[in-house]
TrEMBL record:
Keywords: Cell membrane, Ion transport, Membrane, Potassium, Potassium transport, Symport, Transmembrane, Transmembrane helix, Transport. The lineage of its organism: Bacteria, Bacillati, Bacillota, Bacilli, Lactobacillales. The gene is kup. It is found in: Cell membrane; Membrane. InterPro entries: K+_transporter, K_trans_C, K_trans_N, Kup. This is Probable potassium transport system protein Kup.
Length: 663
């Protein structure tokens, strides 16, 4: 696969695609952040100028510290060959401490849970702005049921187009997001100029004062609303693999500037209208600051931007899940690459699961106000977990004391945000917490199920392939046994010393002798490098028994049949194995014979002797394995000749039962 030009160089096209993919979530925060700030004050009449200036100062410095410094300046440097996100970061540091798996699991689950709420809250917020707007002779309904129905239709269309890939989507969405940021920046500037006193918010002093001011009735819990301004920062890091860090570096100053102008402009309008009797039907400061002649146009663009906001979380979810699957944190799922751009992926099962949950969230909360009350709690958890992993990464790169101080600073800030967001639990935050726990349980079952299996698997279940090499060579040459396949391939997990599962040799020698010209034992090793594509061959001093180790990056497709065919051709050219001419074929000068793949499917044996708790975990893991991508799909063998054989999985000490003969 060719390296993506988008990821490796800075360009205008790359910046536009970045705007369309990365900044949807954080870019649409002006739709609801100031509305939440005013709600914390108890309404427009209680939003005093000092309160507004202090709140905007909190927003400005949150974006500066959390998004700009932590994510753009620090986290983007912690890339795994261009890939970002919490699992890519974990892949960089997991060798230094096993316990880092825990924050990786928690953070990944929380980010995926947040991805179900973001599309709902952003699209609903924008569609609510259409209430009462006239489209020629048509007027959009004031009924919230119509808003919900419209939101669901938009979400369905958004999830339907994911299969075309983020490169296509980004090219379409990029110009829209550029227009969106330009609009909110210009409108913000126009509202800011008559009230330049709001520029005092650039000083962090006003932010600190507001936290302890009596005008701030919410106290420290105002940070729960402030934090909404930076919820897209984690998605920004996860989406790095789609667009490349250079394009993010180039585009963020523009995005940050436009966001700042929008917040300051809304603040200036609120200060002017603090005691105004002219403002009737006040709903959301974002829509109030728009000039009347532009309102319909801006609301339409806002709706499109809200759709794009969902895109940032969806693409981030695809990246996150694909990395988790490769790192054996989640069950196998089919990953597709819709374009030739490196980093462009699509996971159908994740896409439609997100779709169903997002629509369910929309139907449950119905209004953006209720969604805002639940929004942000999960993402504070993800940010805290990312800080822990970043600390482990920075320890390898810079002075350990400096790394600790950086982690303590950002950790302290995020702990405060977490405490401020905990109050949202009772107001709907429990929904995202519940979704987080469900995702986390799946991750934990899969990860620790593998650990339990590896720990309890009896050494007697493994035998040396070398001990049976001569039998395999003799069987291969035995003309009295019917030929089962020219190339018989087993997906093996070869351990040091050529140790493989006894069940594989039992399948070849005992069940029914399977004669083949060449026996292939293939081990797939997933590397921390996302795009590794290498192999190693051990001929075991034969021409008919081959031990192959494939080294594949965690972003590579496992097209085993394609790789094995290439390896056979390489070995034939080198004279390591004999040519396999086919008498009957449609392919001229064909030298590679037929294939048959054997995949062993494990079922938990009644003879297993482990604790009830471990048996529950293993049983759940096997259930997940049987209800996700099959080995045939996972190894890319859909069009190959595959035999699936059930074998017992016996863990722990075996039960020994002896029958007594009755005479």
């Amino acid at each position: 696969m060719q390296k993506s030009s988008l990821r490796n160089k800075l360009s205008v096209a790359g910046v536009l695609v970045t705007l369309g993919i990365v900044y949807g979530d954080i870019g649409t925060s002006p739709l609801y952040v100031m509305n939440a700030i005013v709600a914390d004050a108890g309404g427009l009449q209680h939003a005093t100028p000092d309160y507004i200036i202090g709140s905007i100062s909190l927003i400005f410095w949150t974006l500066m510290l959390v998004t700009t410094v932590k994510y753009v300046l620090i986290a983007l440097r912690a890339d795994n060959n261009g890939e970002g996100g919490i699992f890519a970061l974990y892949a960089l540091v997991h060798k230094h401490a096993r316990w880092l798996m825990i924050p990786a699991l928690i953070g990944g689950a929380a980010l995926l849970a947040d991805g179900t709420l973001t599309p709902a809250v952003t699209v609903t917020s924008a569609v609510e702005g259409l209430k009462g707007q006239a489209f020629g002779h048509l007027v959009f309904s004031q009924d919230q049921t119509v808003v919900v129905f419209t939101t669901i239709i938009i979400l369905l269309l958004l999830f339907m187009i994911q299969r075309f890939g983020t490169a296509t989507i980004g090219k379409a969405f990029g110009p829209i997001m550029f227009l969106w940021f330009a609009l909110i920046g210009v409108i913000g500037l126009a509202n800011l100029l008559p009230n330049l006193e709001v520029l005092k918010a650039l000083s962090p002093v006003y932010a600190i004062k507001t936290l302890f001011s009596p005008t701030n009735k919410a106290g420290i819990f105002i940070l729960g609303s402030v934090f909404l301004a930076t919820t897209g920062a984690e998605a920004l890091y996860s989406d790095m693999g789609h667009v490349g860090k250079k394009n993010i570096y180039a585009s963020w100053p523009f995005v940050y500037g436009m966001l700042t102008l929008s917040y300051f402009g809304q603040g200036a309008w609120l200060i002017r209208n603090y005691h105004s009797q002219a403002v009737t039907g006040f709903t959301n400061p974002f829509f109030q600051v728009i000039p009347a002649n532009l309102k319909l146009f801006v609301i339409i663009v806002a709706t499109l931007a809200a759709i794009i906001a969902s895109q940032a979380l969806i693409t981030g979810s695809f990246t996150l899940v694909s990395e988790a699957v490769r790192l054996k944190i989640l069950p196998r799922m089919l990953i597709k690459y819709p374009s030739t751009e490196r980093g462009q992926i699509y996971i159908g099962s994740v896409n439609w699961l997100l779709c169903m949950v997002t629509i369910a969230v929309t139907l449950f909360f119905r209004t953006s106000e209720h969604m805002e009350a639940a929004y942000g709690l999960a993402i504070t958890v993800t940010m805290l977990m990312t800080t822990l992993l970043l600390h482990a990464y920075l320890e390898q790169k810079i002075n350990r004391l400096v790394a600790l101080l950086i982690a303590l600073f950002f950790g302290s800030v995020e702990v405060i945000f977490f405490i401020a967001s905990v109050v949202k639990f009772a107001h709907g935050g429990y929904v995202t917490v519940l979704i987080t726990c469900l995702i986390l349980s799946v991750m934990a079952i899969w990860y620790y199920g593998n650990k339990i299996r590896d720990r309890h698997e009896s050494e007697r279940e493994y035998v040396s392939l070398l001990a049976y090499r001569n039998q395999l060579v003799e069987l291969s040459a035995d003309e009295t046994v019917p030929l089962y396949a020219t190339n018989l391939v087993y997906m093996a997990k070869m351990k040091p010393g050529h140790m493989i599962k006894r069940s594989m040799l039992y399948s070849i020698l005992d069940k029914r002798p399977k004669r083949a010209r060449v026996y292939w034992f293939v081990t797939v090793v997933i590397t921390d490098d996302p795009y590794t594509l290498k192999y190693k061959v051990d001929m075991m001093d034969t021409k008919s028994v081959v031990n192959v180790t494939l080294y594949l990056g965690f972003r590579r497709n496992q097209w085993i049949n394609v790789y094995i065919r290439q390896i056979i051709q390489d070995l034939m050219r080198e004279g390591e194995i004999d040519y396999q001419p086919q008498r009957y074929t449609t392919i001229p000068d064909r030298h590679v014979g037929d294939f048959r793949f054997v995949v062993l499917r494990e079922l938990l044996s009644p003879a297993t002797n482990i604790s009830n708790w471990e048996r529950l975990i293993i049983g759940a893991r096997i259930w997940l394995q049987n209800h996700t991508a099959s080995p045939v799909q996972w190894f890319g063998l859909e069009f190959s000749d595959v035999t699936i054989e059930a074998v017992p999985l016996i863990l722990g000490r075996r039960y020994h039962v002896k029958l007594k003969q009755i005479k």
